[in-house]
Amino acid sequence: xxxxxxxMGRAKPSAIMAVAEKxxxxxxxxxxxxxxxxxxxxxxxxxxxxxxARAALDKDSGQYGSNRGSDALLDAFLAHIEAVGLTGYTRxxxxxxxxxxxxxxxxxxxxxxxxxxIAYAVPYWTTYADIADISNxxxxxxxxxxxxxxxxxxxxxxxxxxxxxxxFLFNNPNNPTGMVYTREEVAAxxxxxxxxxxxxxxxxxxxxxxVFDGLGYHNFLHTQPALRDRLVFxxxxxxxxxxxxxxxxxxxxxxxxxxxxxTLNSNHITNIPEVVTAAAIAALTGPQDxxxxxxxxxxxKRDSVMAVMNSIPGVICPRPQGAFYVFPDISCxxxxxxxxxxxxxxxxxxxxxxEAKGVAxxxxxxxxxPRALRISYTCPSAQLPEGMRRFQExxxxxx
Length: 399
Hints:
The chain is an alpha/beta fold. The protein has two domains: 6-44 and 290-396, Aspartate Aminotransferase, domain 1 (Alpha-Beta Complex), CATH 3.90.1150; 47-285, Type I PLP-dependent aspartate aminotransferase-like (Major domain) (Aspartate Aminotransferase, domain 2), CATH 3.40.640. Helix content is 39%, strand content 13%. It has 13 helices and 14 strands. The protein has helices spanning 15-28, 47-58, 71-82, 100-111, 126-134, 154-161, 183-193, 220-223, 255-268, 274-285, 289-311, 346-357, 383-396; strands at 34-35, 94-97, 117-122, 138-143, 167-170, 200-204, 231-236, 249-252, 325-326, 336-338, 341-343, 359-360, 362-363, 373-376. α7 (183-193) links the parallel β5 (167-170) and β6 (200-204).
């Protein structure tokens, strides 16, 4: 019988979705489950977004749209990124996709040949490894443990770039850690990048509006405009606007890259649907009260989760300043047991926590860091204290 393509042997199901599906099944079976697993914002966009979608339905043309994205959508995106200091771009520098994940896969197709190297910090969003493997590219993973606040250092970047990777993929604010690079840290990395002109820079910064403590979002271009000719900025509506299911992603960068991604769209998706486009424009150009309010709520939730992390002996958890994750190093639990369940690694820990306390987290090994786990604290506010109480209780019961 015919065989699947060899690339399918390199493709893996999402580890995050596997945990979410297990938690969902237990809940359907009657268990009281609190899920800290999947990275969705768990709020809905403002009413004006739905009104725009309904109006678009009423005047639907039924025609194909632009492979690049409609002019109105691109203009809305350009205005959106100007607010974070990314100026001077035109529609020709932009393209869209069915979510940021699709944009990233398009960029991999556009920029990577088989055998090329893609470099990124560890912990990483799971899709980065998937993109490399499916593209048959080499992975250059740069370990950034809790002891260095999960952040990449200039020395690490210098050593990596000296090997001439085709792409350096950077994520700020970071998923899974929630860490945010300061302006000084971004500037120090940018000073390294400018010395290595053979590497594309992909800034996957979809949480750029989810920054706490007045820290602000900073991009390499803010301190090194010379990087403009090889830097691609990726954004999305999913997190900021509570629209993960609408699937709208963007990129802005050199015209040649935007043209390549648009060409791939013409082969892959043709266009973002008309109704979704209308909703996206409304989200970007309409009232910003919902994302502003939710960002403040996430900062308060961060504080309550960190209070628990800091109270558990042996747990190491650098303080996140963005997104909606904490990423504690829970390796102090390895070698211990909860009842009859022995914990030798992060997967054991998460399985025991789910079975014993009904709390679902994602093992850190899914993100390249097996000493940790990811907590997404976007659950309903009423569930968060109870979930944290169970987490704390679980540790207290280890022997």
